[in-house]
Amino acid sequence: MTKADLISQIEDLEEQSSVLEPSEGERAALTRHVTGFAASFINRLSSTNAFQSKILQSVAITGNPSPLTDILELYNSEVVGTGINAASGGHLGYIPGGGIYAGALADYLAAVTNPFAGAYFAAPGAAAIENEVVHWLKELFSFPETATGCLSSGGSISTLIALTAARDKHGIKGTHVYSAVVYLSSHVHHSVQKALRIIGLEDVVLRSIPTDTRHRMDAQVLADQVIADEQSGLHPFLVVGTAGTTDTGAVDPLEALADIAEKHGLWFHVDAAYGGFFILTDKKHLFRGIERADSLIVDPHKGLFLPYGVGAVLVKDRHAVLQSHFYTANYMQDAADEELALSPANLSPELTRHFRGLRVWLPLQLYGTKPFAACLAEKLLLVNYFRLGVQELGFEVGPDPDLSVSYFYYPFSGDSNHLNRLLLEQLHADGEVFFSSSQVDSRFVIRIAILSFRTNRSTVDAALAMIERCLQRVRANA
Questions:
Q1: Residue 412 shares a structural domain with residue 342
Q2: What is the β-pairing status of strands 148-152 and 235-242?
Q3: How far apart are alpha carbons 123 and 97 in whole angstroms?
Q4: In angstroms, rounded to a whole number, what is the distance separating the alpha carbons of residues 151 and 355?
């Protein structure tokens, strides 16, 4: 092939691919369509159901181009119009967050500028922003400056990072796995067991420590169990406390757990994915002892109301997390001389990563911390407002909540679990707001998790009205 032939083919392919770099006018038109769609979506949130049960049609990739208007119409029908509307203030199930607009703007900037945020050498500014977010979190939770951490996609990966460091710090490998002991609350998030399985610790001895009447881990039972395990020749190495359980919102007695961990040389990990940012409110006293954790996780896409996809992990032993996650290769030699802990990629399984730091940093710079603290404090009051209202309808509720999650059930005279399941089905069929369920002490309960920044008193009033009309239907057919 001659040089002229090469140039001809290159020019032809360049012409075919030029659509990938739209002109300024084309960019403006595309942006108008998307921002118009987003504005309409937000404006309709208050009048749109939080849950819609619908059979999906098709989102197949055909390989052929389509107009953006058609694509947005498909997105509205098949994504926005199905399942849980997680942006809605009526999302009161699982653990909501909402997704503040400033976070979306940050994601847009991150995607357009596209820095390689994993390596300090490649994008020192992007790495510095993530490191500043970590620094802010260390100050918030009173971790020492020598601690380290990074942002992740969420609590599951954060947990994986922390428990990997704990495993390697304590040398849990080979036959040591079978005598190693991990202590969990009976309400621990399932991502902990999942992480243990992924990192090869599926066969450790798992101790599920019971909870008290407030659903908090019983520290005395834990202390007795650790002693019993040591006396029997086992090797306790990890205790996991929770600062805001998913089921009930309970905060374990962190100070007492820290005492036990320190006395017996255990790695103390705290799952604060849901509850951690309530440390900004007058519930701060519940978090005493969290500063003594060896590692903790917290999710900005929960307590800071950011779009899904940003969690954080802090680890006190910088060497331990680097030992577990740092690796290099010849093609990374240009970055070999940088400070290891300045590159988020050295602290997690991810090399290529989304520029998550901007999603946290920009809203905090734009608004400061006070609006976030006020919003969290409002949720604490709203859950108590709901509890009063649902009890007026004849429901039983769980113990006074530590944070903004609670549960309730109706004391039907028949099969209460079955009838409360039917009630939840009615609530889902209605869909104005969305609730989820759980099992607490073998009882089927309906959960309410008030965390979305868009959830307000009118949302709770609507939820109570929906519960009342759905209850009437179930009672009429019971």
A1: no
A2: unpaired
A3: 29
A4: 9
Residues 249, 283 contacting (CB under 8 angstroms):
no
Distance CA 454, CA 448 (A): 15
Q: Which residues lie below 8 Å from residue 98, measured CB to CB, with a gap of 6+?
A: 86, 87, 89, 91, 305, 451, 452, 453, 454, 455
Tell me the pLDDT tens digit for each residue of 226-245.
999 999 999 999 999 999 99
Helix/strand/coil for 216? coil
Tell me the Ramachandran region of residue 233: left when phi exceeds 0, alpha when psi lies from -120 to 50, beta otherwise: left
Same domain, 356 and 470: no
Do residues 360 and 376 both lie within one domain? no
Q: Indicate the residue among 367, 395, 416 that finishes a domain.
A: 367
Flag whether 11 is in a domain: no
Q: Is residue 432, in this structure, part of any structural domain at all? A: yes
Number of domains in the chain: 3
Distance in angstroms (rounded) separating the CA atoms of residues 451 and 402: 14
Residue 365: is its pLDDT beyond 90? Answer: yes
- Residue 244 and residue 402 in contact, taking contact as beta carbons nearer than 8 Å: yes
Same domain, 296 and 387: no
Residue-level pLDDT at 341: 61
* Strand order from edge to edge, sheet including 405-409: 396-397, 405-409, 443-449, 436-440
Q: Is residue 429 part of a domain?
A: yes
DSSP 8-class letter at 274? T
Do the beta carbons of residue 254 and residue 289 sit within 8 Å?
yes
CA dihedral (168, 222, 438, 405) positive or negative = negative
Query: First-to-last CA distance in the chain?
Result: 81
Residues 402 and 251 sit within 8 Å (Cβ to Cβ): yes
Range of the domain at 415: 370-477
Residue 12 lies in a domain: no
- Residue type at 360 in one-letter notation: V
Q: State CA 1 to chain mean position distance.
A: 55
DSSP string, 369-423: SHHHHHHHHHHHHHHHHHHHHHHHTT-EE-SPPSSSEEEEE---SS-HHHHHHHH
> Mean pLDDT across the stretch 469-473?
97
Residue pair 466/388 in contact (Cβ under 8 Å)? The answer is: no
CA distances from 435 to 25, 217, 299, 421, 464 (A): 45, 25, 21, 12, 12
**Tens-place pLDDT, residues 137-179:** 999 999 999 999 999 999 999 999 999 999 999 999 999 999 9
Closest to 383 measured CA to CA, from 363, 357, 358, 401: 401
What is the Cα–Cα distance from 350 to 118, expressed in whole angstroms? Answer: 8
Residue 440 sits in the same domain as residue 459 = yes
